[in-house]
Amino acid sequence: MSTTPSTIAPPSAANAAKPARRIPWMLLAVITVLAVLALAASYWFFVGRFVETTDDAYVGGDVTVMSPKVNGFVTDVLVRDNQFVHANQVLIRLDARDYDARLAQASAEVESAQAAVTELQAKKSLQLATINEQAAEVRASGAELTRSTADQARYRELVKDDAVSNQVVERADADLTKAHAAVDRSSAALIAAQRQIAVLDAQIGDAQARIATAQAAQRVAALNVEYTTIRSPIDGYVGNRTARVGLLANVGVSLLTVVPSSGLWIDANFKEDQLKKMHVGDGVDVDLDASSKRIHGVVESLAPATGATFSVLPAENATGNFTKIVQRVPVRVRLEVPKDMEGVLRPGLSATVKVHLDAAHG
Prior knowledge:
Blueprint: H1 13-46, E1 51-60, E2 64-66, E3 72-77, E4 84-85, E5 90-94, H2 97-160, H3 166-227, E6 229-231, E7 236-239, E8 248-249, E9 256-260, E10 265-271, E11 283-288, E12 294-302, E13 328-336, E14 350-356
Antiparallel strand pairs: 1-10, 1-14, 2-9, 3-5, 3-8, 4-7, 5-6, 7-9, 10-13, 11-12, 11-14, 12-13
Pfam family, one: BSH_RND
Keywords: Coiled coil, Membrane, Transmembrane, Transmembrane helix
InterPro entries: AaeA-lik-b-barrel (IPR058634), MdtA-like_BSH (IPR058625), MFP (IPR050739)
């Protein structure tokens, strides 16, 4: 079977033009890819290699758990969940009647101890007067002894000349003996009175010690009364409130939590190989998952150990089945929060953190 030239159709003009149009499109695609790669390389060279990023970051804050220091029934709950409170604002009151009674008892013991000291000081004043009286008696008996001694000597001389009888001399001897006895008696009484002062001083010291003990108990009782009123230590928001009127609150049991409204930070967990050029003072950009606004900050500190080191069960790598795992180190970021963002930040919120490495550090 043969074919004639007239049966073979020439290639159409459309088919001949297809390769010519395909080449510019392919060239454009290649140029676009190269441009994107060039831009990416430029970004990495000028920006990217000076930035470390992590999304393992969370807002932190000094969240305060409010728990009572004394046991008691809750009589008043003065705040609601999520309410903003100021520092020193009263949050909860406990039944203070038992503690008021203990304070009154402690105050009475202080007054009793003070009265005992006053009584002892009055006794000391009276004893000092007695000492003065005994001292006067000693002086009087001494004067009598001097007179009796002189009389005896004079009568003994007179009896030699028969100027007086022996009876007079004997009476003078007896008077002298009595004078000696009176001096001894008054001197002993004076010494006893003086020693009584030392006894009273010791009793006063003991009573003053009882005052100090009673005053310490009074201060403790006053503190316990004060502890029945629970106040907010900071400005913040109330959360996790479990306190209810009539609840028996025990020491150390959480009644509510106060979350700070300011002074928050970011704890960003970076891989250990991201810390090579990171330093305190590096600038930080923070993007919260809960907000579209970016917050700026600076690196405040780097943790002294990895997060695993501070865990309850630290990793034990001295085994035969060791598998290396890249560790993460917490980095504390101090935030520069604008006023309109203070109500947005909440401890625990997730964030993406970018640290701009300072090239000056090398």
